[in-house]
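User: Is it possible to get a 3D structure for a protein together with its bound compound? The compound here is zinc ion. I've pasted both below.
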Amino acid sequence: MITLTLKGKLSIPLEADSVTPDNLHDKSNHQIKEQTVYWGNKKKTIGDFFEVEGERSDRITVVGDCAKVKLLGHKMSFGAVHVKGNTGYNTGSYMTGGAITIDGNTADYLGAMMEGGLIDLKGNAGHFVGGAYKGETAGMTGGEIIVRGNVGHETGSFMRRGLIAVGGNAGDFTGLFMLAGTIVVLGKAGERVGANMSRGSIILMNQARLLPSFLENGVVATPAVEIVLGRVRELGLAPAGGGRYVRHTGDVNAVGRGEILMRVVNRNHLQV
Amino acid sequence: MVALQLGGAPAATLGEVKNRADLVIFWGSNPAESHPRHFTRYSGSAKGRMNPRGRKDRYIVLVDIRPTPSVKYADEFIQIKPGHDYEVLTAMRMLTNGNRPDMDSVGDVAIQTLERLVQRCKDARLGVLFFGQGITETRGKHQNSMAIYQFGKDMSRHSKFLTLPMRGHYNVVGSGNTMCWQTGYPFAVNFGRGYPQFNPGEFSVVDLLKRKEPDAALIVAAEPMDHLPYEAARHLENIPTIVLDPRETLTTKMADVVIPVKHAGVSVEGTAYRMDHIPIKMRSVLNSPWPKDDEPLSTIIARIKAIRKEEAET
Amino acid sequence: MGIRIVNGEVIDPAHGEDRVKRDVHIKDGKIVADAGQDATVIDATGCVVMAGGVDIHTHVAGPKVNFARLMRPEDHRYEHVSREDGYERSGTGGVAATTYTTGYRYCEMGYTTIVEPAVPPLGARHAHEELVDIPQVDKAIFTLLGNSEIIFQYLEKGETSKINEYISWIMDATKSYSVKIVNPGGANMWKYRADIHDIDQKLRDFDTTPRQIILAIADAMATLGLPHPLHLHCNNLGVPDSYKTAIATAEAMEGRPLHLTHLQFSSYGASGKRKFSSEAPRLARMVNDNKNITIDVGQVLFGKTTTITADGPFEYHLHKLTGSKWYNGDVECEDGCGVVPYDYKRKSFVNCIQWAAGLELFLLIDDPWRVYLTTDHPNGAPFITYPHLIRLLMDKDFRREQVEKISAEAAAEIPLKVLDREYTLYEIAIITRSGTARRLGLVNKGHLGVGGDADVAVYRASRNWEEMFAKPAWVIKDGQVVAKEGKVTRQVFGTTMYVHPARGFADIEKDLADFFESYYTVNINNYPVGLEYLPRPELIPCQVKA
Ligand SMILES: [Zn+2]
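Assistant: Yes, that's possible. Here is the predicted structure of the complex:
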C-alpha cells in the first residue's frame, strides 16, 4: 500500500495525473516523491505536496481534502486508488481498468472518456460524469460509475457503453447525445433527459418532464431493467425492484432508437 | 463557441443576408437596442442583389420571451415561455424532419404556429436565424445554441438556411480567431504545462475566479469588474492585477498597476474581426502618447525570459 | 559566416545533377560558388543534399482552416508542441495544427516553402495574419476567383479587358501570388442550395458557364503574366464520373497552361459492381498527351482527417453521407467553404479506390516535372504523412504489402496492383521541390545552383525512405541551420511572396465603387490588404509576354 497524505491546503490547483497504480506500482518511496505534478504553471513533485508512505504497490490511498487535486487516476488501467476526502476535476478520466473509490465529493468530468474499470463516489459529483470532452463525439466507452450523491448536468454525454448509476438527483441533459450504454437515476432527473440520444437506455426511478421528441410506447415490466438494477444493487445502491416502467423512445430528432424507462410511481401517473 | 465545436453550423458572411435573405428570424435577440445598425445594413431594410426593395422583400420574425422594442420592426412576433427555447426548437426540428409533436403547444406556442414558421423556412430563398443572449445565457446555455445549429442543419436538407450568433463585444471574434490559430482553441486555454490545454469550466476565466484559483491577473483591454459576475470580479480585488487599457474603467480603478496604451482603431491602426469573422482594417484617427498594447507585453515577456534564463544558470 | 556542405551527394534535377559528389556553398542566404575559408563545415557523409521542399498546395491558413481548428478541439487534445521540448512557441497538432506547429513540422521534414491555395478575397487579411505566425518557411496565397460575381458581371457583358483589370486589382488587394478556381460557378449556385454538374451549364442568376469563367480567368492571368498559371479544382469533384469533367475541362483549355489540383479527387468513374471505379489511368494518359497541363495528386492516406474546401456543395454532400460535424461558410459576392471531419478506412471500398487512384496517377504519369506530391493537406491526409507517401512511391514491395491490407473487393479491381514502377530519389526531388518550384515560377527555389535561395535539406540515406524523409539530418533556411535530426533548432521567419501586376485599373474604378456600395457589406477603402500585413514581403515579378 502507498499512502499519500496532502500536507496543506491548496488554493492553486494541482495536476496529479502521475498518481496512478500504473505509474507508481514499481517505484520506491523515494522515486514516488520525485514524480512530477504540475502546480499552476510550475513543475513540482509529489513529495512537495504529499507525505508519502509505502512503496511498490498497486494500491494507493490518498488522504486529505484534494478538491484542488485534478486528474487522480487519469488513464489508470489496474490496481486501486482510494481517496479519503474530496477530489478535483477529471478524476479517473480516460481510465481503462482498476478501481477508484472517493469518500467525499468531486468536481466536473468524473470518469470522462472512461474505457473500463470502476469508479465509486460516495459524495456528489459535478457536471459531465462519464462525459465527453468538448468536441469529442464519443465519450465513455466502457466501465462503471456509481455516484451515491447528486450529479450535475450532461451526465453520460456521448456515452457509448458502460453503466452510470446515480443514487441522488441528476441535473439537466442526462444522457445527452447518448449512443449506447445504460444510465440509472434513483433520485430526480432534471430537464431534457436523453436529448439527441440515438441509442442506449436511461432508467429513471422518478418522473421527469421529457422533450417532445420522445414518444410514449406502453408500460413494461422488463427483466432487462431488473438485471441492470441487480448490478446497481451489487455496487451498493438500493433501487426498488419489481416495478413497472413507462417506456419512451427517442430522440426522434436523432436516430430515435434510445429508450427512457420511467418507473410508474403511483396509479395516477398516466394522467399526469 | 462550444456549440460550434459540438457540431458545426451552416453560416455565411452578412452580405449573404443583405443580398439574398427573404426570411429573417431573430431569436432571443433585441437588435433594435443591442445592434441598431444590423437592421439597416444587413438584415432589415438593407437592399441587395435579390432584395432590391429592402424591407419589403423580407419577412421578419421575432422570437422572445417578452415583447421588446424590436417587435415593431417584425412581421410576426412569437412569444415563448421563459426557459423553453430548447423544447420549442426540439419541436421545430421534429416538424422540419417530418414528425408532428404529440401535443397542442410547446413552451406556450401553438404547434400550428411553429408549423407555419417551419414551412416559411422551407419555402424561403434564403432563411436566416440570428440568435442572441436571450437564448445563450438561459437554462441550457450552449446546448440552446447547439439546438439552433441543429435546426439549421436539419433545415439545410430542405432549403438554404443559415444560423448566425449575434455577438457583442468589440473584436471578441478577433481574439477568438487569434487564440484559435495559435493554440487550436478560441478561449479557456491553460498554458500551465507548457502547451495549450482547453476545457471550458475548468479553465474559463469566470470559473477560475469564482473558485479563487488565480494568484495574479494580467488584463488586456477587458472590463471584468463591469462584465463578470460579482463573485468572480471580487477575487480580482484580492490578487495583484496589471491592466492594459486606453481608458479609465472600473477595472483600472481597482488595478495595482495600470499601463495606459493606445486605443486600437482610434489612436493606432489594427485589425478587428466582425461578428461574421470578416477582418476589418481599423485606422488611427487620433494621436496618443501611449505605447501600442503589444509593446508592454513584449517587454514583459522578454523580461520574464531573461529572469528564467538567470534562474536556470544559477 | 557561410556554410559549406561537404561529402554529400547532391540531387539537383533543375541542373540535371543526380547524386553528384560536390560541395554546396552558402553565404548571405544564397547558394554561392565559394563560401570562403571561414565557412562552417557540415559533413554530409552518407547523406543526399537537396533543395528545400516546396509544397504547391496545402491548406494551412485563413478563415476555413481556422474553422477546421475551431470545430475540432478533439483534433488538438492528443498532440502538442511544448515549451518544455525547446520550441519557442507551443501549440497543438492534429490534422489542422496551429500556425507555429505547422511551420515547425514542415521544417522538420525539410520543406522550406508552402502555398496556401484557397483564400477568398475577403479572407485574405485573415490569411496574411496567420501567415505572420507560421515560422520556418516562405509562404504565398492563391486567391479564389471562380465564383466572383464581379467577374460574372463582366462575363455577361463580354468585357474581357475589365476582367484583366479586376484580376490585376484583386491580386494587389489581396497580396496574392496567383488565382485558384474551385468548382467554377458551383459555390455561387450553392447559395441557392444547388450545384454545377457540367462545364457548359448556365449559372442560375448570371448568364455564364464554368467554361467561360475558366477561359476568361486563364486568359487574364496570361495577359498579366502571373508566374503560376490557373490553379483549378474541377466541377463535379469527388463523385463517380468526375473524371469526365476533368477531361472536358482540360480539353476546354485548348493548350493554355493549366494546373489541375488534387486530380485524384476528380479521377473516379462509375463502372464496376459498386458503380465507383478509378479512372486514374485515363487521366494519366490525358496528362501525358497534354504538355500544357501539370497536376498535383492530392493523395488519400488511411486515417482520420478534416476536409476543408471552398467547394461548399461537396462538403454538404459529405456531411449528409457521414453524419459528421459540418461547417458551411458562404462568402458574399465571392465564394464559399465547407469543413467536415472524415475518416479514410481500409475497410471502405470507396476509400481504397481513392487511395489507389492517387498512387496510379503518380505511377502512370510519365513526366515527373508535371506531377507533384500533395495530399491536398488535410483533405486526403495531413502533410506529415509525406514521408510515408514517398515510401509508397519508391518501394514496390512496401506498396504491395499495403495493397494486401486494403478491402479485398477493392484490391481486386484497382489498376494499381499491376504497376511496378518505383520512383527514384531524383524523381522524388522533382515532385517535391524542383518541379513545384518551376511550375510556381520561383526561379530561386527548388535548385542548388549559384544564386538560388539557400534553402537546403540534407537527408541521411537509408533504404527505409519513410524514415529518411521524416527526419532530415540538417535543414537550412536562408543560409542558417534551422533544424537538426528532424527537430527545429532555431526559429526563423520566411517571406510572404506576392505579385503586383503592372496593369492599371482605371476603367473599373467606378464599377468597383458601385458594386461594393450595392452588394458588399464592407467599405471598398477598407478592403485591400496593405503591405503592413506582410512583415517580410517578397515581390515576385510578373512576366508579360510581348
Ligand atoms: Zn485543396
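Chain C touches chain B through 62 residues (CB under 8 Å). Chain C has one domain: 50-496.
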